[in-house]
Design goal:
Blueprint (H helix, E strand, L loop, with lengths): L7 E2 L5 E3 L11 H9 L1 H9 L2 E7 L5 E7 H4 L7 E2 L15 E6 L5 E6 L2 H13 L4 E4 L3 E6 L2 E5 L3 E4 L6 E5 L8 H17 L2 E5 L4 H12 L8 H10 L6 H7 L3 H13 L4 E2 L11 E2 L10 E2 L2
Parallel strand pairs: 12-13
Antiparallel strand pairs: 1-2, 3-4, 3-5, 3-9, 6-7, 8-11, 9-10, 11-12, 13-16, 14-15
């Protein structure tokens, strides 16, 4: 673990980077793309990857550290601070925000999102994956090549109690046309594979799904209920269940709907998030909806 490192101010005077700049000259993009396009070379470079992180020291403060692939395997999101932080400024085009997420160490903590696109994907994952730990901008991955070094900061690292970590990059469909970005994402995928982690590249969510996610996220703590018991009531009911019937089973009236929205927001029951939610929309107990057009294989 390295010494504590001060944030580096960016050109507008606000602090955004919390780790030292990448050492060495940048690898040429031609080599990055060649390595990424060769399965054997890509795996070799990925297995030798290192990462710069901002970890929690014994006093609870952030401290710069480096890790190889073997060390990264034991890293969990709760141990990590963001290696950079978005800063608002006049004329910016991104929507930055903080989101409350669960932890296993404390009841919750707040993390940064660098764009509205990233924010909605985090909300999607909070509902559909129910992680117990979340970190954003969790590390800078670094790959050494013949012509130099290249680095990349993934957007999200999540983990739940029963599955391997999930590393996520959020981008746009148009940016995926850039072969340089494709090369970096392929190297990230290979590094995640070397770590035994799941990896996803996500692009824009459908507009209706975004509206539904924002609705459920806004009301996820509007009521206090025994969620396990309430979901058991719905599971034990005979026949199919739609929104209206589920609301009635949960007490009826406005409170019945609020309780149902709460169960959906916390992943205890599911609904098709890609469609307009009506009173006759089906309520299910496993993932529902069409194909995930926003997931892209690398």
């Amino acid at each position: 673990m390295g010494k504590r490192h001060s944030a580096v101010p960016h050109r507008l005077g606000r602090r955004t980077n919390f780790i030292p700049s990448l050492d060495g000259r940048p690898a040429k993009w031609a080599e990055v793309m060649d390595v990424a396009g060769n399965v054997a070379e890509r795996a070799k470079v990925a297995s030798a990857a290192t990462a710069t992180l901002l970890t929690i020291d014994t006093t609870g403060s952030p401290s710069v550290a480096t890790a190889d692939v073997n060390s990264l395997m034991s890293m969990v999101p709760d141990q990590l601070f963001p290696v950079r932080r978005p800063a608002s400024h006049k004329g910016m085009t991104n929507y930055i925000s903080r989101v409350v997420v669960p932890t296993e160490v404390h009841e919750c903590r707040a993390v940064w999102c660098e764009s509205f696109n990233e924010l909605t994907h985090l909300r999607d994952l909070l509902i559909t994956r129910q992680p117990t730990q979340v970190a954003t901008q969790p590390m800078r991955l670094e790959w050494v090549m013949t012509t130099g070094v290249r680095g990349h900061v993934p957007d999200l690292l999540l983990r739940d109690a029963d599955s391997r970590p999930l590393l996520v990059d959020v981008t746009t469909r148009s940016k995926l046309d850039d072969p340089r970005l494709q090369g970096v994402l392929q190297l990230t995928a290979a590094t995640a594979d070397a770590l035994g982690w799941e990896y996803q590249v996500r692009t824009e969510l459908p507009a209706q799904r975004v509206r539904n996610l924002n609705f459920f996220h806004a009301g996820r703590n509007d009521t206090v209920q025994d969620r396990i018991g309430a979901s058991r009531v719905l599971r034990q009911a005979p026949g199919s269940i739609d929104v209206q019937r589920a609301s009635d089973l949960l007490g009826g009236g406005p409170q019945g709907f609020v309780r149902l929205w709460d169960l959906i927001a916390h992943g205890h029951v599911q609904i098709n998030l890609d469609s307009v939610i009506e009173r006759d929309s089906a309520v299910a107990f496993q993932a529902t909806g069409g194909g995930a057009s926003w997931l892209h294989a690398m």
